[in-house]
Amino acid sequence: MLTLLTAMYLVVRSASTQAEPIRVVVTGAAGQIAYSLLYSIAKGDVFGKDQPIILVLLDIPPMLPVLDGVVMELQDCALPLLREVIPTDEVEVGFKDIDAAILVGSMPRKEGMERKDLLKANVAIFKTQGAALDKYAKKTVKVLVVGNPANTNCLIASKSAPSIPKENFSCLTRLDHNRASSQVAIRCGVSSDKVKNVIIWGNHSSTQYPDVHHAKVDLHGAEMGVYEAVKDEAWLRGDFISTVQLRGAAVIKSRKLSSAMSAAKAICDHMRDIWFGTKEGEFISMGVYAAGNSYGVPEDLIYSFPVQIKNKTWKIVDGLPINDFSRAKMDATAAELVEERDTALDFLSQ
Ligand SMILES: NC(=O)c1ccc[n+]([C@@H]2O[C@H](COP(=O)([O-])OP(=O)(O)OC[C@H]3O[C@@H](n4cnc5c(N)ncnc54)[C@H](O)[C@@H]3O)[C@@H](O)[C@H]2O)c1
Ligand SMILES: *[C@@H]1O[C@H](CO)[C@@H](O)[C@H](O)[C@H]1NC(C)=O
Ligand SMILES: *[C@@H]1O[C@H](CO)[C@@H](O)[C@H](O)[C@H]1NC(C)=O
Ligand SMILES: *[C@@H]1O[C@H](CO)[C@@H](O)[C@H](O)[C@H]1NC(C)=O
Hints:
Layout: H1 2-15, E1 22-27, H2 32-42, E2 53-58, H3 64-76, E3 82-88, H4 91-94, E4 100-103, H5 115-136, E5 142-145, H6 150-159, E6 169-171, H7 174-188, E7 195-196, E8 199-201, E9 209-211, E10 216-219, E11 222-225, H8 226-230, H9 233-237, H10 239-245, H11 247-255, H12 261-276, E12 284-289, E13 302-310, E14 313-316, H13 324-349
Parallel strand pairs: 1-2, 1-4, 2-3, 4-5, 5-6
Antiparallel strand pairs: 7-10, 8-9, 10-11, 12-13, 13-14
């Protein structure tokens, strides 16, 4: 009897050599970014081709009927890695035992809404979600904030989850990073993978500073600095920067909807790099807690820096030389974030 049980156990084990499923929550799961994002996650683009997944979809009560449709479509994709899909409007359910949380949902700006009221509404959302992560998620959870204002929402969520390390919170500036890489690649007539180490500094807004002073292009086998490859300083200091800064608005103007496909792709890039690390000798941009940075950025902020990731731990790339042109732009975007943080912290303490 015992041998039979052992044999059965071994059969079951060898049939399921796959890892235990991980639990991933996406908030704003009925929205347009999530619609592009969920498929990529569920088919293994982010956490690996052999990592089973339980997807938790969190949205607000009026969106539950829409979520049902999303659940149906995910089932209809017949994806082998997708073990379970759980739609919910409750944070207690949404954040339970979560390994990775992608916070896409936030309060959108409505007609005639004051900036302060918008911030206040978002502080309330990210306070609630941070507290729920603190209470229900795994302590090793990786939290990525996408919903705007992403940097400050991320800071509020982190402050509301004191038992989860601050390092486990980050916000998305990878879309800006990808936009900058692509602009340089198009200019040089190479594919985007030939461009590395662009940097987005600061807030995910039009004051962000896309910096290519440390970036490299592989120009038909010869690696060189971007300034050297592009040979057009006026463009690099002018239209290149403003194109990246204003890209979100340009997409909205043209599509009448904000970036969704490219945002979803950037979310996948960001989370996959957290999970598997960045390539040797390369860095990427993400909004992270600024404490201990070597660039004089105020400490208690979520600010976008160049980072390298290894063993699920990021490190800001320190000590890159910063010229006066860059300094002024890095300071301006920091000042914007400080102001927003101070207002948000007032709301948080109310
Ligand atoms: N950081 C970036 O690079 C970046 C890029 C693009 C978009 N964004 C931001 O991402 C967010 C989502 O964009 P979208 O196009 O998917 O918007 P969307 O309006 O299509 O979807 C947002 C979804 O979030 C839900 N939601 C709102 N409050 C919620 C809450 N408290 N809990 C759970 N769900 C909630 C809404 O019901 C909606 O289904 C926006 O804030 C947008 O500005 C950020
Ligand atoms: C910072 O960027 C976010 C995201 O674009 C934006 O909503 C916010 O208004 C910016 N902050 C300030 C103070 O301008
Ligand atoms: C990777 O991180 C884990 C958890 O923090 C730690 O236990 C382990 O020692 C680290 N491994 C390496 C090779 O740094
Ligand atoms: C998250 O926190 C854990 C400790 O709970 C740590 O080992 C890990 O490196 C952190 N992750 C990131 C991305 O910093």
